[in-house]
């Protein structure tokens, strides 16, 4: 592998990641700041992020596409809970229509970023994943659109006896294209969004699929097609119908979340009642569909048209709630002593979280430990200049938050232009109370909290969970606050003198 210290190019903004956040950020930049130079640096060979990476059976959204889609690009498909291939087509066609698809540089993995206050710019160390070549470029700003999980590996617990199993073990994040499960006995370990997607999809052709869960999850059937959205588009046209559907669904998402927070016992009873009506008569609902936590303490799983319940009703799938004692040659043995046989075991056991794709940061030669920082307005790390990130909602559609963060980022750049500065950074008050970045009970989140940045307990350091609150803070509020600082670098002052 060759190395070079030569800086080959300078950009105004380097966007890292060509998924839904990065492509969206590029479109906002191209419209709001058409004279700024930018590129999207993507470590993989294709755009689309999650929707290109994951290839497991049945992969789909778990949010409606009228809110998961971009505000500026109407979702025109009949499916509201949409399959991955439709989402990928939407992302790529939207990027093409916006003219930002040509800004993507594939096989460009950012390994490290080094900030110089004197020059007010980042130097990015880049590895070409196709050739191994190392290059560098500089940028005034870095916009991290990498999401919050590792693309190269998922999470799999240590299972005793794993090496004894004579069948095939698969993690959904690395699904083999040639895996044939027709007529096979399958165990899917897990109960989250991935598991409830896989089970009914595989059950269509597998001999039988068991969803083996340690703890139940709240699961609700939702219509795959939104008939109100279809009617609104028919009568009002694509753009107005989409806008009204989007407002409807934002309010609906918020209303459901607030109801679950304020009336958890009633919400639990309603969810149980809906589940019981969809399951076979006499099914042990409380054993398999009654979580020990309140609704929305973890993300509520949606199943389009109740497909999981249909698979259980027709006998092609079943649920087992127990703990794994060990893998065996023929399957798994549970702590209860029961043995489950399988030809294929799918470990739908979650993700590994990672901020900024694992790249390292230094500011004026000092390494940055992200877990020591606090996130300002959901987008900037305290003490780290000219770097923004995009992390979406955990209790609503991801893209709702990302769109607002992109708008705010563009406003911030304009404010800096107008005030004649080139450096912006946030500073938290000494001794400010902090809390974990993601206030979410999912196991994959809890495992990683000690490595993530923190949030505060009040704005602008609080990671808001509400779209309307964020509209007031990010879209309608002032760009600057007392925690956000600005400066003109020595390089800028020198240019002004010339």
From TrEMBL:
**Domain of life the protein comes from:** Bacteria
Cofactor needs: FAD
Q: Which UniProt keywords apply?
A: FAD, Flavoprotein, Monooxygenase, Oxidoreductase
Q: Which PANTHER family match?
A: MONOOXYGENASE, PUTATIVE (AFU_ORTHOLOGUE AFUA_8G02570)-RELATED
Q: Which family, according to the similarity comment?
A: Belongs to the FAD-binding monooxygenase family.
Protein name, UniProt field: NAD(P)/FAD-dependent oxidoreductase
* Taxonomic source organism: Tsukamurella soli
């Amino acid at each position: 592998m060759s190395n070079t210290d030569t800086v080959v190019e300078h950009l105004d903004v380097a966007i890292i990641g060509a998924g839904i956040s990065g492509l969206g950020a590029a479109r906002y930049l191209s419209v709001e700041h058409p004279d700024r130079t930018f590129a999207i640096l993507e470590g993989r060979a294709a755009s689309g992020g999650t929707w290109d990476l994951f290839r497991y059976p049945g992969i789909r959204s778990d949010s409606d596409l009228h809110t998961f889609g971009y505000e500026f690009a109407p979702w025109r498909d009949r499916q509201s809970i949409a399959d991955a291939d439709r989402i990928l087509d939407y992302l790529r066609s939207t990027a093409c229509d916006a003219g930002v698809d040509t800004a993507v540089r594939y096989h460009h993995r950012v390994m490290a970023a080094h900030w110089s206050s004197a020059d007010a710019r980042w130097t990015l160390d880049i590895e070409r994943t196709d050739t191994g070549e190392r290059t560098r470029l500089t940028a005034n700003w870095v916009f991290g659109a990498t999401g919050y999980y590792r693309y190269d590996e998922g999470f799999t617990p240590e299972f005793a006896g794993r090496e004894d199993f004579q069948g095939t073990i698969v993690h959904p994040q690395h699904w083999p294209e040639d895996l044939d499960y027709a007529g096979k006995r399958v165990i899917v370990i897990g109960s989250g969004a991935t598991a409830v997607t896989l089970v009914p999809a595989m059950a269509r052709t597998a001999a039988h699929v068991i969803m083996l869960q340690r703890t139940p999850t709240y699961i609700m059937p939702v219509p795959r097609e939104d008939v109100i959205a279809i009617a609104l588009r028919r009568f009002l046209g694509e753009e107005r119908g989409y806008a009204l559907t989007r407002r409807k669904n934002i309010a609906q998402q918020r209303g459901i979340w607030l109801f679950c927070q304020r009336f958890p016992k009633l919400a639990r009873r309603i969810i149980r009642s809906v589940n019981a009506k969809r399951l076979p008569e006499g099914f042990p609902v409380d054993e398999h569909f009654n979580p020990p936590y309140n609704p929305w303490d973890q993300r509520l799983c949606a199943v389009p048209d109740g497909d999981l319940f249909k698979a259980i009703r027709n006998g092609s799938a079943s649920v087992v709630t127990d703990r794994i004692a060990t893998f065996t040659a023929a399957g798994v043995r549970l702590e209860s002593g029961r043995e489950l046989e399988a030809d294929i075991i799918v470990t739908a056991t979650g993700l590994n979280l990672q901020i900024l794709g694992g790249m390292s940061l230094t500011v004026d030669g000092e390494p940055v430990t992200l877990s020591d920082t606090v996130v300002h307005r959901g987008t900037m790390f305290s003490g780290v200049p000219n770097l923004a990130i995009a992390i979406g909602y955990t209790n609503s559609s991801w893209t709702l938050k990302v769109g607002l963060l992109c708008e705010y980022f563009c406003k911030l750049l304009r404010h800096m232009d107008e005030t004649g500065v080139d450096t912006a950074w946030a500073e938290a008050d000494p001794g400010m109370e902090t809390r974990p970045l993601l206030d979410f009970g999912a196991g994959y989140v809890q495992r990683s909290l000690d490595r993530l940045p923190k949030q505060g307990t009040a704005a602008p350091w609080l990671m808001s969970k509400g779209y309307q609150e964020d509209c007031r803070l990010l879209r309608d509020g002032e760009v600057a606050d007392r925690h956000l600082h600005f400066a003109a670098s020595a390089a800028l002052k020198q240019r002004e003198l010339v």
